[in-house]
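Most newcomers find our protein records easier to grasp once they have seen one. Sequence and backbone structure share a record, each on its own labelled line. Nothing more is needed to start thinking about how sequence determines fold. As an example, a complete record with its sequence and its structure tokens follows.
=====
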Amino acid sequence: MTFSKFRQLIVTLLLIGLAACDGEQASISAITASAPASAASGSSNGLQVSLVMKTLTNPFFIEMEKGARRAAQETGTRLEVKTATQETSIEQQIKIVEDTVKRGTDAIVIAPGDSVRLVPALKQAQQAGIHIVNIDNRLDARAMVAQGMRPVPFISIDNEAAAFASAMELSRRLPAHAAVAIIGGIPSADNAKQRSLGAQRAFQQAGMQLVANKSAYWKIDDAYTVTQSLLKQHPNLRGIFCANDMMAIGARKYLTDSKRAHILVAGFDAIPDARLALARGELVASMDQQGNEQGYQGVKTALAMLAGKRVPGELLIDSVLVRGTTP
């Protein structure tokens, strides 16, 4: 199977249930859904929470949406879900927030694609009296202060510690002083920075030789190309830590195509395709960061704020290391 066909297959599977759309602007309204109050809750509480995510092309965010819907159904809350086309579609996400402020909502639960660029739009939301809950990727504290934005609750995992665990599992399976590389996400995203730092710490502690740290912007095809470039520059490479599983799948695909199966890859997210790869020994590790629970707690926290309750400034959810079979 060629890489282009492979990528088409992956994307097709991940986009099940999403409407086809032409252009970024059209996709803002296409990838939108609302959940009515659940019969299980008995009645509506009259509140609306807007969940704004990066994309639904990554199964991690599909799980996040499921968790948010679970919380909405339990409480009789109307849930509006909006996403951009890709994790790199930051301008789309900004427009979604701005449009949500214009239409009105009670609370926004957001997994921001960028830690800085979303801040001005979210400040507008606060000024409009909308409660904000930050999940997954932390907003930049200095940017928030500069914009005069009040602190908001943050719900995620300890990304640095989780990446450390995944990279350490990779290191454990490599020879001493092996050459390793990091393939990271969007450089301006805090979770990408933290995962890079965690992997660097693991490689240093394990005595590995870190030869490169490149970004593939969370994407399968970018990771395929980056891996190809890495091997040209560092033919002695033995291991790659990827900051999400989409990139790990792209890296692994290039290594398979180029008959370099001896190079080990660790990922992050424990999405279904990665779990299959782990079971087949194609990946050595991934981290389950419980996206379902992040979405659930995001909505519950928003509702607590709307009820006037005090909520913690930070809620860190446990991440779980998922090991692959021994190659």
